[in-house]
Write a structure and sequence with these properties.
The protein is of the alpha/beta class. It is globular, with a radius of gyration of 23 Å. It contains 14 helices and 17 strands. The structure holds S-adenosyl-L-homocysteine, iron/sulfur cluster and FE3-S4 cluster.
Length: about 450
């Protein structure tokens, strides 16, 4: 059950101040005699992955141990998502698990941050009696200062971050979103668009590469409206600068809005060696009237032309993925049929399908949510089945062709796996490759979700 209104911060697009319980003395601060350990948990989009990483670094900077296992931890931090009601339900479920964890030992505390924190603000403290802190992950200073004040005698200055063997990392390049898609709460909880400068991004990527990262994904809710606040450089320019970082093998970017998907972007994919042949371009719906009600500001024909232009420019192949919402306010059978038609016509590699979920405070929340839940589910399942076939067919076209696999790990049965440049999960025969290497392989077999390939003879 979602709160009916947005918190003042979400309504005003301003960062939320730290809120904590003031009516009773909880948590009791107990001297630990060691650095406090923090358990981090997150859900939601890649932005939250990146926020978790950053928060972990900031916690280590003040002397806390980030990424502790729950049973060892003193503080649990939930980094939450509010894009659909289901995401919130998962957070409340996780919270219920944490209540017994907290009560098992005095001095434990629970903090909630991420998008639900901005959406609900201090209303969460009233609703969840065992919650101690709510803070804005974009501005964690108040929370960090609180930890410093409470654990002053346990904190001994910065701790080294644990070593990482990660090959891939997310790099935020633009935060927030200025679009106002009528169904979407993201602009309210993430605020207005704000880009980092090209040199900041490049410096971040260099640091990651020095730590062994080989693949970066540049992130933004609306990544292709990226604009360097000083030089005015756009995403294709940024891609060029990142591509030039020594030791980086692969660059990806997420999420593009069709409104700003320009030919220069497709040129960058085609021309820059590290930029992978993959485009995630959410369409949301395949009917012009429906797109207008969603305030997506493009037509089906314009979107189709963009995908065709991109595929034409990026040869021999480009993997294209999209997001689609079913059951939006007033979605008729014939509008829904338009979405299916578009999927069949464009043959996406991957489609993230979601049933429309009313979000408080959004423009669409003022319209009747008139497609019954059962019908939403039916439409969703129908498109899932359609897409399963399309994905299987797309992947069949890879059989007999060459892919480049960045080997990320080895499964329990000894088979190395990783992703192709197109972002396809690819399995290799046991013993044929080691993690951290790039392997050229020929696809032997495929399913709707995966490729199976054999290393090509050198
Ligand atoms: N900035 C991206 C993604 C934002 S959220 C974009 O513009 O596409 C990720 C996806 O969640 C969206 O693409 C949309 O498909 C889905 N989504 C957002 N709000 C939703 C809602 N209220 N109900 C169902 N799905 C939603
Ligand atoms: Fe939401 Fe639209 Fe912004 Fe994407 S572009 S985050 S769907 S408002
Ligand atoms: Fe969810 Fe926030 Fe991302 S609402 S989808 S975690 S920006």
């Amino acid at each position: 059950m979602a709160a009916p209104v947005l918190s003042p911060s979400a309504r005003g697009f301003v960062p939320l101040q730290l809120v904590e319980r003031t009516n009773r003395r909880t948590p009791n601060t107990v001297a630990l005699g060691r650095a406090p350990r923090v358990h981090l948990w997150h859900i939601g989009c890649q932005m939250n992955d990146a926020d978790r990483e950053r928060l972990g670094g900031e916690l280590a900077d003040i002397g806390c141990v980030p990424e502790a296992a729950l049973e060892d931890a003193d503080i649990a931090v939930l980094i939450t998502c509010t894009v659909r009601q289901k995401a919130e339900q998962k957070v409340f479920g996780k919270f219920r698990e944490l209540v017994s964890w907290k009560r098992a030992r005095p001095g434990r505390s629970i903090a909630l941050t991420g998008c639900m924190a901005v959406e609900h603000g201090d209303a969460l403290l009233a609703r969840l009696p065992d919650l101690d802190y709510v803070f804005d992950v974009r501005e964690p200073d108040g929370f960090l200062a609180k930890l410093q004040a409470m654990h002053a005698i346990d904190l001994d200055g910065p701790l080294p971050l644990p070593a990482t063997d990660r090959l891939s990392a997310f790099v935020p390049v633009i935060n927030g979103c200025n679009e106002m898609c009528t169904y979407c709460i993201v602009p309210f909880v993430r605020g207005r668009e704000q880009s980092l400068a090209v040199d900041e991004v490049v410096a971040h990527v260099r640091r990651l590469v020095d730590r062994g990262v080989r693949e970066v994904t540049l992130l933004g809710q609306n990544v292709n409206s990226y604009r360097d606040p000083r030089s005015g450089a756009r995403l294709p320019d940024l891609l060029r600068a990142v591509d030039a970082v020594d030791g980086l093998w692969r660059t990806r970017f997420l999420t593009s809005h069709p409104r700003n998907a320009v030919p220069a972007l497709f040129d960058a994919i085609a021309e820059l060696p590290t930029v992978c042949e993959q485009l995630h371009l959410p369409v949301q719906a395949g009917d012009d009237a429906l797109l207008r009600r969603m305030r997506r500001l493009y037509t089906v024909a314009e979107y189709t032309a963009q995908i065709r232009a991109a595929a034409e420019r990026v040869r021999p192949r480009l993997a294209v993925s999209t997001d689609i919402i079913v059951g939006f306010c007033g979605e008729t059978e014939s509008e829904f049929a338009g979405t299916e038609r578009l999927m069949r016509e464009l043959q996406f590699d991957t489609v993230h399908l979601a049933a429309y979920s009313v979000r408080p405070g959004t423009a669409a929340a003022r319209r009747p949510d008139d497609v019954p839940l059962e019908e939403k589910k039916r439409r969703l399942n129908h498109l899932l089945a359609v897409q399963r076939e399309i994905a299987a067919e797309r992947n069949r076209q890879y059989e007999g062709t060459r892919v480049e696999v960045l080997v990320e790990g080895v499964s329990e049965d000894g088979r190395p796996y990783g992703r192709s440049r197109e972002g396809k999960v690819t399995w290799l025969p046991a013993g044929s490759a080691t993690p951290g290497t790039l392997v050229a392989a020929t696809v032997r077999h495929s399913t709707a979700w995966q490729l199976h390939a054999d290393p090509a003879a050198a």
